[in-house]
């Protein structure tokens, strides 16, 4: 960060200062959500064929 600030041309410093100060006023942005994909490719060989049966059996997965 220090190297970046040192590289900012003097004429642009007021704009950079304004942006930095504005970023301090608002809420801290949440970290982007990361989705785990481990194991998504390992399943029974007929899972795609059985998916309708699985969804029918699980009341939490009913279609709306």
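^ structure tokens above, recovered residues below v
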């Amino acid at each position: 960060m220090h190297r970046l600030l040192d590289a900012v041309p003097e004429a642009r410093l007021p704009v950079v200062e304004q942006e930095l100060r504005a970023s301090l006023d608002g809420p801290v942005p949440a970290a982007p959500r990361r989705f785990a994909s481990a194991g998504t490719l390992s399943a029974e060989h007929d899972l795609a064929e059985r998916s309708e049966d699985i969804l029918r059996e699980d009341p939490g997965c009913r279609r709306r």
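DSSP finds three helices and no strands in the chain.
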